[in-house]
Design brief:
The protein has about 260 residues and is of the alpha/beta class. Helix content is about 40%, strand content about 15%. The chain binds phosphoenolpyruvate.
Length: about 260
């Protein structure tokens, strides 16, 4: 069965005390959710990862992730953080290919493929992001764009490797804009991605891989989005910085 999960990408927000306070609130609000088989991934800036791993240790429903990792393994790359370093402080997940990294840091599909490879060798689960910009959707080019991102960044993996990845469809026009993909648009793309996986690998594998939706998910729209047959949860930006909003979103996961 596909794992249902909600991941909160904090981006470059929150000082240490604020991060700890947010996590304490989330833990408190999730206390009554004990029996649920949901999985929550909190994705703070690098510097908070080790502290939050400690703070959440003992709660099996929560993992800590990173927003990025280097495409190199180690060496003279000042300012970079490797997948192995993330693993060594207890991270379980790493976002690869967020549209802000692609756009502001010119990350290429080849670099993303390398990041995915290093993450998997360290047994970190990559959350591989992909999605079209508004012009591409307006030109009805979204499927070709997504197909290329997946082929160049992810589909070099073997079946055994790709099943250890989580995918996240994040239409760039929906990120941080308050514009959400309609349920029909989200379902259509998720279904398309599953059909690509099915053609490249197998139908059984396509059915096993979690595909999250991201882009202005709130506690108002999450229920409808998470109920779609090919949507397995969400990657949440802005709404993950408010404990009540985030936990309300987590509670929208079907189980
Ligand atoms: C994101 O940055 O991955 C994201 C989905 O942001 P937001 O929820 O704020 O649109």
């Amino acid at each position: 069965m596909r794992r249902k999960l909600v991941a909160g990408n904090w981006k470059m927000n929150l000082l240490r005390d604020e991060a700890q306070a947010l996590v304490a609130e989330i833990l408190g609000m999730l206390a009554d959710e004990e029996s649920r088989s949901v999985h929550v991934v909190l994705i703070p800036p690098y510097i908070h990862i080790a502290g939050l791993v400690q703070q959440t240790s003992g709660d099996k429903r929560i993992a800590i992730g990173a927003q990025n990792c280097s495409d190199k393994m180690s060496g003279a790359f000042t300012g970079e953080v490797s997948a192995a370093m993330l693993k060594s402080v207890g991270a379980g997940y790493v976002i690869v290919g967020h549209s802000e990294r692609r756009a502001y840091f010119q990350e290429t599909n080849q670099q993303l493929a390398d990041k995915v490879n290093h993450s998997l060798s360290e047994k970190l689960i990559p959350i591989f992001c992909f999605g079209e910009v508004m012009e591409e959707r307006k030109a009805n080019n979204q499927e070709a764009i997504v197909k290329r991102q997946l082929e160049e960044g992810l589909f070099h993996l073997s079946a055994d490797e790709i099943k250890n990845c989580v995918l996240a469809y994040e239409p760039v026009w929906a990120i941080g804009t308050g514009l959400t993909a309609s349920p029909a648009q989200a379902q259509e793309m998720h279904h398309f991605v599953r059909s690509l996986i099915s053609t490249k690998y197998s139908g059984a594998l396509a059915n096993e891989i979690s595909i999250l939706y991201g882009g202005s998910v709130t506690d108002q729209n999450a229920k409808e989005l998470f109920a779609l047959p090919d949507v397995d949860g969400g990657l949440i930006g802005g709404a993950s910085l408010k404990s009540r909003n985030f936990v309300n979103i987590v509670k929208c996961l079907p189980y």
